[in-house]
Automatic annotation (TrEMBL):
Name of this protein: Cytochrome c domain-containing protein
Keyword terms of this UniProt record: Signal
Domain of life: Bacteria
Taxonomic lineage of the native organism: Bacteria, Pseudomonadati, Planctomycetota, Planctomycetia, Gemmatales
Signal peptide: 1-19
Keyword Signal: yes
Species of provenance: Limnoglobus roseus
Amino acid sequence: MRLLLSLAVLTLSLASVRADTPEEVFSKRIVPIFKSPNPSSCTQCHLSGVDLKDYIRPSHRETFLSLRDQGLVDLDHPEKSKILHLIDMGKDAKKATDIQQKNRTAEYEAFAAWVKASCADATLRTAPKLAATNLAKPAKPNEVIRHARTDRVMESFENTVWALRFRCASCHTTEAVEKRAKEKPLESLGANMAWIRPTAEETLAYLTKSRLVDAKNPERSLLLLKPLNDEIKHGGGVKFVVGDQGYKAYRSFVDDYAAVVNGMYAKSDELPKKLNVVQFGTQSWLKIQNTPPAWADKYMAVKLYAWDTTTKKWQANPVATTDRKVWGGGKLWQHNLTLLTTPDSADAKKWKTATPTLPGGKYLVKVYLDATDRLAKDWKAELSDDDFVGEAVVESQWPTGYGKMTVLDATAVKK
Ligand code: HEC
Ligand code: HEC
């Protein structure tokens, strides 16, 4: 009786000691990941374009050979396999949600166990290569995968909506909303008034969560329709006209964001062109007064050029710009400046954290007018030399604030 019992114990423990075959590990632990509707841990950084599922084939053998042939497993040091590294990428990221962390741990442990078991299997190690058409990998090219990364989306947000937030900040920051709430009951305002949060990241998260940016219907996003104050009324009045710098920046971001999250880009030539300019909003205002009747209620843009002390010429590229419709009734045009620089410049690095400022001095102001309302018909249209109406030199310390505008008289603007 005792013998029988110990025999039973022995067989039981033997059974539990026997390691699962790679195939068993695969069906128990990898297949559920493959079939799961849950997003993989990759989505923490890749909004589309790549997913862990892209690397899995229905059969254990093909999945392993596919990873092996793409250099994603290290046969001799399975724990150093690149596929494990990819899964582990977001481990230390503060942004990871609990669910993402939980998924990642599950994915990592499953793949680590399965890769290890498979690498120990001599027939798998030496099996002939898979046909290239049988490799399991993302369908999108690397450029598309890169473009759809959260850090790239953030970069584009910073250079568009965030850079031009000053056009909206006087009413839409938390402080502005609180101040207003003391004067007027808040219920007369929208629930998402305070959409400009302290940082660019928080702002983007807020805009998408509140659906002010509508990824399903990007051009119908309230973030675009409100400031146009056209079909949808805006408590702040007209803050954009179709085709102006603010609209262009916000619209191009919203369109691109929607295309990214919906996985719409298939090829790299469909991606938006990367501009070699980054923009930073300021609170320095330029006013042009006594505008002639021909400019009344037309869209007008200015570009500012700095003086180059070595070549003794105006610099070739503008250092600042801004635009708006001329207020015909008041013979007036005014707006705050947006600074322009190249992405790798010292200024660009500095202005990411410090307040962007235009140094005091003299500048050439070139003025462009959309006399035929081209932008309203095509928001992507750009004003060119044909739209140039004149220039003037302005000297200013560029003080900040609505009450401290730098003023130019339109009569000084000459061709
Ligand atoms: C914490 C953020 C993060 C997570 C999570 C993450 N990645 Fe990445 N991934 C990146 C970054 C950043 C790069 C580009 C830098 C690099 O090449 O190392 C990248 C690059 C890639 C590339 C190469 C494309 C290229 O740019 O050449 C692939 C493929 C990839 N990741 C797949 C995955 C898969 C699959 C997962 C999930 C298992 C994953 N990544 C999880 C951030 C992440
Ligand atoms: C002078 C103040 C002011 C400025 C500047 C302003 N807004 Fe508004 N905005 C308001 C007020 C007041 C409301 C609430 C009434 C309404 O919904 O129209 C509002 C509402 C909104 C809403 C809807 C919020 C919600 O809770 O649904 C959006 C989106 C919006 N504005 C976008 C913008 C954008 C984009 C800009 C800059 C280009 C801007 N606003 C500039 C005053 C302003």
